[in-house]
Amino acid sequence: MARIPSATISSSDGPRPIPVIGLGTATVGRSDEVKAAVVEAIKMGYRHFDTAAFYGTEKPVGEAIAEALQAGFIKSRAEVFITTKLWPNSTERHLVLPALKKSLQNLGQEYVDLYLIHWPLKINYPHIKIPVPTECVTAIDIKSVWEAMEECQNLGLTKSIGVSNFSSDKIQEILSFAKIPPAVNQVEMNPLWQQKQLNKFCKENHILLTAYSPLASFGNSWGNNSVVECNVLQDIAKSRGKTTAQISLRWLYEQGVSFIVKSFNKERMKQNLDIFDWALTQEDLNIISQIPQRKLVYLLGFVVTEPNDVTVEIDSKL
Q1: C-alpha angle with apex 130: 183 to 90, nearest 5 degrees?
Q2: 317 in any annotated domain
C-alpha cells in the first residue's frame, strides 16, 4: 500500500493533515463504477475522496467507505478524508446548511472533512443540471454565504471550509470579514495553467491550493489533451522513464499544492501514486516554467477563461 504525504490545513480541531493526492469522482451515470473505484483506491492507499452535490457521486462514495470499513481495508472513518461541495443553486445563507445536511445524508456520514463553495456564483435555478439558462446566473452574496459556511463548521458538520474556483480578489473579500478563513481553494492547475500568482497569494494567506484537472481533464467531455500531449512534458517523461501524467503530478507536488486525480483504471491509479520517491531536476522545473500558458477547460457547463477571475458562459454542447 502506498504511503501518501500530507499537507496541513486549518480546521475546527486545529491544524489537520490532508492527503496531498485525492481521488476525484466527477462523472456521469456511473455510480457502480465510482463505488468500485473508491474501494480499490482505498486498498491501494488513497485516503482523500473528492465529490460534490453536482457530481451525483456522494452516495457511491459513502457506500464504498462503508464497504471498506466492513472489509477491514480501513479501521475507522477517521482514516479517510472526504471533500464535498455546495452547488450554486444553494449559495444563499438559508440554503447552505440544508444543502450540507443533504450531502451528509447521501454520504451516510455525520461530518465531512472539507466543505467547499463550488463556484463564486448564484444560480437561480432549483435543479442541479446543465446547461443553466444564462439569465439564471447572478452574483453571490459572499458575506452571508460564508457566515453560513462558518456555521456549518461550528456545528461540527464539517471539519474545514473553503472555496473552489475563487480568484485572489474574491478570497481577499472573504478574508476582510471572515471569522474562520478559507482552508482551501480548489482550482484548475497543471503545467499548462500554472496559477503562479494565485498559488503565491494562497501561501501568503495560509490557504492550501488544491489542483483539479491536473491533466486538463483528459478523457472527459469538458477537458482536452493539451497536458498529456505536451511535447515538453513528453520529452521530460521519456528522459526520466515516467509517464507524462506522472511528470505533471510530480510538478504539482513540488509546487506545494495538493491535487485531485480522476482515473478509475487500476494501472493508472497506481501510476498516479508513484510520484513521491523521485524528484524533477532544476533544469526540468526551469523548462516547465517556460511552457506557454493557456486556460480553456470545459467544466460543469461553464467555460473558465480568465487567469484571476471566473467568466461564466453556458456551453450548449454539455
Answers
A1: 45
A2: no
Low pLDDT (below 70) residues in the chain = 1-2, 28-29, 127-132, 217-224, 295-318
312: in domain: no
Could you confirm whether 55 is annotated as catalytic? Answer: yes
* CATH number of the domain within which 275 lies: 3.20.20.100
Given the residues 46, 55, 115, 253, select the one marked as catalytic: 55
Could you list the residues known to form a binding site, using ranges. Answer: 118
Binding residues for substrate: 118
What is the span of the domain harbouring residue 238? 6-304
- 132-to-122, 127, 138, 189, 317 alpha-carbon distances in Å: 11, 9, 11, 25, 12
pTM of the prediction? 0.91
Q: How many residues does the chain have?
A: 318
Exposure of 9 in the CB half-sphere (CA atoms within 13 A): 29
CA angle 63, 104, 87 (to 5 degrees): 110
Query: In this structure, is residue 258 part of a structural domain?
Result: yes
Task: Give domain status of residue 318, yes or no.
Answer: no
Domain count, the chain: 1
